[in-house]
Amino acid sequence: MIGVVPHLLERAAELHRLHSAVDRAAAGRGVTVLVTGEPGIGKTSLLQTFVAELGTRTRVLAGVCEDLLTPRALGALWDIARTRPGPLATALAARANPDLLPAAVIEELARRPAPTVLIIEDAHWADGATLDVLRHVTRRISELPAVLILTYRDAEVGVNHPMRGLLGGLAGAPRLPLSPLSADAVTELAADSTVDAEALFQLTDGNPFFVTEVLASPGVRVPPTVADAVLARVGKLSSRAQAALDYLAVAPTGFEMAVLSDLVAELTPIAEAERSGVLRMRGTIVVFRHELARRAVYESMPASVRLARHADVLQLLCRRADSDPFQVLHHAVGAWDHEAIVRYGARAAREASRVGSHRQAALCYAQVLRQKKLLPLAREASLTEAYAWSLSNSNQLHAAAHAAALAVEAWRGVRVESQLVRALVALSRQQWLTEQTSAARESAEEALVLSQVACDSPDQALATLNLGGLLVLTDREEEGLPKLSDALQLAQRSNAAEIAALCRNYQGSARLQLGRLDGVAELQASIAAARQLNNHEYVMRGYYNLVEGLWRLGRYDEASDYMHLAREYSQDRDFPVHSYMLDARRFRLMAMRGRWPEAIAGLRSLLDGQDDPGMIGRETLPMLARLLVRQGHPDATQILAAAVEHAERADVLDWLVPTGLAWIERSWLTGRPEQASRFQNLLLDRTDRPGLSLQRGELLRYLRRLGYPSRPFRGCPPAYAAGLRGDWQTAAAAWERAGNRYERALELADSGQQVPTLEALQLLLDLGAEPAAALVRRRLRALGVAKIPRRRPLGSGANPAGLTNRQVEILRLLSTGISNAEIAQRLVVSTRTVDHHVSAILQKLGVRSRREAANQLATLDATDQGRGAVSQISSTS
């Protein structure tokens, strides 16, 4: 980092923590540091000062993520490679396998003797491939003589932001949230000016950039906006300097000096703007000192001038062989140059896909496809199909299905059967993911018919695999297995190794769904083959299918082991769909073990911002609905209705069984047994098959509670069988061993005896299961119990109320009177996540308002156990 080192006020503590991190790295114990704050708060200035203080005792590698139309793939790493020869530069220049890049970065950071500081600025704009590399580095930084510093705007990293997954693994990383300057600091800065310090503080709220810009225009009244302040400073420059700024304003990435010299007649005006503090050097690149200043200048330019400047830059970049396609695309869009958009947009999309930046690839494809008039039909079809896969890989499932349908129609017009086969397979997959089950089957069957024109071809193997896999996914495993066997043979004869690996994946999944444990070995073989082929998606599919198959059989510990392996494998890569499903399983496991508030908060967070989650919603909506039903929560009706809509549309067991069980349980809890008929016969019919003994046992047990005659069947799980026989003691003991307090409570409640029924009530009150507790109270009254607990007492856990550490932390902040949004900003989480935690806190404390919850804090502090939990977060409050 090169440039004028600013005079910093009120940042001594942050600088001390950064230097302490370097000292720790010098001892071989590296660390990641997160520097956060709003635009203009001084993140870059802090790091400039820090780097200047380091001197030559430390290697500094710095890259910036920029606000281009579509972020450059690996843009920050290219910044480093441009000025630092080494393993990273070599790997990037050779366009090496993207999987090798994280190792190259690690090699850079491991170089001694001096410790290395790696700075990535504005990480909220990072592309997917860069985030993958950072995930890899953050997991290994503790073993390196290095410090990784990430700066980002916390307000921009919402619940669905790509960076959220990276931050989730950095819960223990030091965070330096930068606060605005105090009124005293602003007064000190304004001491030598004629500006009213109090008015300045009120205008800027202590934002250092805003303060600096106003003070840079002495004699000018305090402007109403920072844009006015920036433009006042710019207005003092010469006309040639202002013209040069126009070029830099259209380029968020800035320009190499060599490029800039081709745009402006001479560089003297650049030096003038640098001396005035408008521009700075970032390595060998000239950029605005602050992005807010660039935007102020850009937005002040007439549209025609913007267009002309973009066009000038575009013309120059197109002449250079080494131009970055993402930068060229940015200027092509700004210049409305449709031919350049097509040429460079497709190139940028392919590069983004190659390195795994699927969100960026989708944005690039979208720009190209807006220029349909320039595309031959075959090119349009090919690009649209690639666009569909990029959308799907970034969990934009409904948009992916729409794009896949457009690709099929385009290929029909081209009349190239082999391409149409592949497009139909892609469409079938996207239709399945968006619950268009019948349409997915039609597309799969058409693809298979067309593929048979070329016998023993990879296309025939793919189409056969796709139909076989779809049959497995739609609960027709016995039909699917012969298809998958044929597909495997076709794949082997045509040397289609990836298709063969996926065949084994579906075969293993089918066998597990049929209750056959030999499916485990088949799925393990599929994972091994996919690993050898470096097909990360197929590896994740294998892990998920192992988790799902073992879970269906009630083998939760084994499923958890594979969940752990999947998380380990995926931590360095971005798999939004698989991460969603595996996170959901983790929350479902919490629910089974009685951690309902955490499970509900987690499931809700997965559904935040998802108007229609598609097929993967089967992992979240039914379980969330059931937990809310068990709580008697007012949201239960709405969430359950949504789950029913999805289940009936998808018509697959993974939706129907959990949703139907939630519906039937609600019928029992609300005393309306007649409502159970909506799912009763359907589930009795659909669960009467191999591999669904656990689900059938649960169904029969709840139907028996509703008064329907039910008895154990051959292979019925012991806990359900005992309950169906009326052996409540054996059933309750089985559920206790399984750690399922809710089911244990329901069996104890069937004892017909006072002591077990009172124990059942206590368990239900601890869980917050008020509807079931109301039923048990009635039974206790019938048993002659006079004194019946009405409220759940403060129970067990990390403190008397059973709050988690995070919930205690939020309660502490809540007691200060700040809003949920302010708490979210303080903790670097989404506001909705805080909303869910606050809801859980109110429920655990048995109160109705934030004020009542805050009043309970004194009770928590008054006990040793509560004091222990609260003291952990005292430094953050």
Give a verbal description of the structure.
Residues 1-5, 792-798 and 862-877 have low confidence and may be disordered. A 5-stranded parallel β-sheet has the order 2-3-4-1-5. A 3-stranded antiparallel β-sheet has the order 6-8-7. It is globular and about 90 Å long. The chain is mainly alpha-helical.
Summarize the structure.
This protein has 877 residues and is mostly helical. It has a five-stranded parallel β-sheet. It has a three-stranded antiparallel β-sheet with strand order 6-8-7.
Helix and strand topology:
Blueprint: H1 12-26, E1 31-36, H2 43-54, E2 59-64, H3 75-83, H4 87-93, H5 101-109, E3 116-121, H6 128-140, E4 146-152, H7 164-168, E5 175-177, H8 183-189, H9 197-204, H10 208-215, H11 226-235, H12 239-249, E6 255-256, H13 257-263, H14 268-275, E7 279-282, E8 285-288, H15 291-300, H16 303-319, H17 325-334, H18 338-355, H19 358-369, H20 377-393, H21 397-414, H22 417-433, H23 437-451, H24 458-473, H25 477-493, H26 497-513, H27 518-532, H28 536-552, H29 556-570, H30 576-592, H31 596-607, H32 621-631, H33 636-650, H34 653-669, H35 677-686, H36 693-705, H37 718-725, H38 728-738, H39 741-749, H40 754-767, H41 770-782, H42 805-814, H43 820-827, H44 831-845, H45 850-861, H46 864-871
Helix pairs in contact: 1-2, 3-4, 4-5, 5-6, 11-15, 12-14, 12-15, 16-17, 17-18, 18-19, 19-20, 20-21, 21-22, 22-23, 22-24, 23-24, 24-25, 24-26, 25-26, 26-27, 26-28, 27-28, 28-29, 29-30, 30-31, 31-32, 31-44, 32-33, 32-34, 33-34, 34-35, 34-36, 36-37, 37-38, 38-39, 39-40, 40-41, 42-44, 43-44, 44-45
